[in-house]
Amino acid sequence: MNLNKVLIIGRLTRDPEARTTPNGQNVATFSLATSRNWTSAQGEKKEQTDFHRVVVWGKLAEVCSRYLVKGQEAYVEGRLTTRSWQDAQGNKKSTTEIIAQAVQFGAKARGGASSNNEPREVEEKSSPDEEKENLPEEEIDVEEIPF
Fold first, then answer.
1. What is the mean pLDDT of the chain?
2. Does pLDDT of 117 surpass 80?
3. Which of 9, 38, 55, 64 shows the greatest Cβ crowding within 10 Å of its Cβ?
4. How far is it, in rounded angstroms, from Cα 46 to Cα 41?
5. What is the C-alpha to C-alpha distance for residues 63 and 95, in angstroms, rounded to an integer?
6. Alpha helices (H) along 29-73
């Protein structure tokens, strides 16, 4: 049996970066920071922060790049993947990323939250018909969004 499932809640370290691949596919990337707090055996308070690269594809990438902002909380559900390549100097490089399949938007950095205190969930849909049902056709004014 195999399982590759990641569930993570953290804060965005920067605004998402959106782009389109040469074949027209939307992709967005952002980084989430997660912190762990504990008290050492000597009674000293400790904190460790980890940074996680998140990659989002398709319509979900478009929505994330439009509405997520630096400092905002986000819940990401997805899978881990590792990529390797050679840089211009011939050095081997690698990175581990979370490929997001669902994202919930949480409170913004300055204490703002969604109007009903519920995080908004966005999930990648498998068919274009399902995407059309959930997204409005007209242009959205960012100032009107309640979260």
1. 82
2. no
3. 64
4. 11
5. 25
6. 58-67
The domain segmentation of the chain, as residue ranges, is 6-37+47-144
pLDDT in tens, 17-46: 999 999 999 999 999 999 999 999 999 999
Candidates 145, 144, 124, 146; CA nearest to 134 is 124
Specify the fold of 6-37+47-144: OB fold (Dihydrolipoamide Acetyltransferase, E2P) (2.40.50)
| Four-residue CA torsion sign, 12, 81, 56, 120 | negative
**Closest to 85 (Cα-Cα) out of 93, 76, 77:** 93
Nearest CA-CA partner of 131 in 58, 26, 73, 55:
58
Kindly calculate the radius of gyration of the chain based on its CA atoms and give it in whole angstroms. 18
- pLDDT, position 75: 96
Please report the beta strands in the chain, taking only residues with DSSP state E, as ranges in sequence order. 6-12, 17-20, 26-39, 45-57, 73-86, 92-105, 120-123
Distances (CA, A) of 75 to 6, 8, 127: 10, 6, 23
Mean local confidence (pLDDT), 120-131: 47
